[in-house]
Amino acid sequence: MEDITMTTDKETQEREIKDEKGKLKSLPSIEIKVLFFARARDLTGFTNTVVSVKPGCTTLDCVAELFSKFPSLREIKDSMALALNKEYAPGNTILNNGDELAIIPPISGG
Amino acid sequence: MEGRECDCREGRRAGILAELKSLKQQKIEIEKRINVIETQLHDGGHFAEEEGVRDPHHSASCNSASASLTPQDIYRYSRHLLLPSFGVQGQLNLLKSSILVVGAGGLGSPALLYLAACGVGCIGIVDHDVVELNNLHRQIIHNEAYIGQSKVKSAAEACHGINSTIRIVEYPEALGSQNALDIVSKYDVVIDATDNVSTRYLISDCCVVLGKPLVSGAALGLEGQLTVYHHKGGPCYRCLFPSPPPQAACQNCSDSGVLGVVPGVIGCLQALEAIKIASSVGEPLSGRMLLFDALPARIHIVKIRGRSLNCVACGENATFTRDSFQSFDYEKFTQAPFSDKTRPKLSLLPESARISSKEYNECVERGEPHVLVDVRPEHHFMIASLPKSLNLPLSTLQSRLGEIEEALKREESDLSPGSHASLYVVCRRGNDSQRAVDYLHGVGFPLAQDIIGGLESWARDVYPNFPMY
């Protein structure tokens, strides 16, 4: 999952501004790459995105952040598998800058 | 002259009838022979005990490892035998194995073809459906001659055509709680190649109850998923997805579309995983999930959770038994039908707010001033549409009400003051049109009506040549 094809540019810019301000106000944030699959793509309109969260945030905090950013994503809140850096991670795993979180709802077609 | 022509025709007819009779007799003889051979296969293990095929002195003149392979087997599977990591033992394991494929559609087609070709001793095929023209772009095991016939029959004959030495068992029925235990218990490995979420939970639970490994594949649109469940202590479907997705999230190929080769890729990989398990080679995709992304040409493999100790089906304190399996209501649990063809019929509107497609046709023929709004997505509208319909997709309706008002005004411009043009709404099957009319009633279009059953009913009841998709 190395290359990201569709980053949301606007968002990355906003985060950079925040980062600059952050340095001044010494409020650091970490950046999480999020990959959406299947229904999560339809609901968000993205195949991937970048979210900024506070250091010390967990996987579930990041998912909550995604729900507030993409309210329609709540549709699959009880039916998605999560993978952090291609590994299984329980909801209370602490995130690090640059982590990659995959949101994987099941597909049932065939 | 006429008499002679008549005699001639009669003569030709008699000739044809005689040939037909002879061919039918031959067909009966062939079918009898097939039955005899199949019975021998069934009774005598994986390999045909057909006279002449197996050399009685063969085993005495060979070493023990390949003793069960006939010269024909060795020639047919030679490229497998040449693989150091597969070899004679891998092939013998395959020939002794049995694999059940549930679903002879987009995933099952390539899976079945490979399983038959590679010499799985016994293949079971479950499917209740018949072959349709709109299946053929992806369900490559079927061909035009089988349209309208059972998918299981079509698939079984294709498999037999590739490899007549293996046994194929046909189950032209839907897999349900009542027949699943009986059918699945007869096989070593199960392949889930179905198209709906209810059957996916049912198959997973059944495999847990019976202790069978499950090779699960799914495909929709331009994406596919693949994993192996309940294999050597690995997770089951419920460990990963304890709650079923809501109805809105359960999309199917007949609504959302699918690029034909996508289930083809996943079906091939399902065959591969099943072959690995059946022949005891390699490392099955258990505890990991493969995500196939066709457009950017990317394959992700992620680790998924292990078996959940709290899993209802396979957890530490799970009490899921044969009895509880048989009494479990999967369609209720998932709120989704066992077939992707059965769709819940929405009934949102009073009768006064609805007209039939025939009534709409009469309105057109009378020249009644009206506006027809088609609320399907734009790419559906591009496939086929009714004359003069205005495409305002349901998702954009709210912001485009002005276009309806303008269209109505244009229709009403020639009418006497106080007269109104009618407003009709249509979609593919008659559900979204109801949602649209329900919405329109509340935003200043109290007389809007929907066309019951949508374009499907138009094609069925009014204009059979209207292209359906």
Question: Descriptors for this entry?
Answer:
heterodimer, A: 110 residues, alpha+beta, 3 helices, 22% strand, globular, disordered N terminus, B: alpha/beta, Oxidized Rhodanese, domain 1, eight-stranded mixed sheet, 19 helices, Adenylyltransferase and sulfurtransferase MOCS3 (chain B), molybdopterin-synthase sulfurtransferase activity (chain B), EC 2.7.7.80 (chain B), EC 2.8.1.11 (chain B), zinc (chain B)
Model description:
The complex is a heterodimer of chains A (110) and B (469). Chain A has 110 residues and is of the alpha+beta class. Chain A has a domain at 29-104: Beta-grasp domain (Ubiquitin-like (UB roll)), CATH 3.10.20. Chain A has helices spanning 9-25, 39-44, 59-69, and strands at 30-36, 48-53, 81-84, 87-88, 100-104. A five-stranded mixed sheet of chain A has the order 2-1-5-3-4. Chain A starts with 8 loop residues before the first helix and ends in a 6-residue tail after the last strand. The model of chain A is unreliable at 1-19 and 22-26 (pLDDT under 50). Chain B has 469 residues and is α/β, with parallel strands linked by helices. Chain B folds into two domains: 97-244 and 253-334, Rossmann fold, CATH 3.40.50; 351-462, Oxidized Rhodanese, domain 1 (3-Layer(aba) Sandwich), CATH 3.40.250. Chain B is built from 19 helices and 13 strands. In chain B, helix 6 packs parallel to helix 7 (151-162) and helix 6 runs parallel beside helix 12 (261-279). The model of chain B is unreliable at 44-64 (pLDDT under 50). The A-B interface holds A 1, 5, 35, 37-39, 42, 47, 75-76, 78-79, 81, 83, 86-88, 102, 104-110 and B 103, 105-108, 193-197, 200, 217-221, 223-225, 240-241, 243-246, 248-253, 256, 258, 263, 289, 291, 293, 296, 298, 300-306, 336, 340.
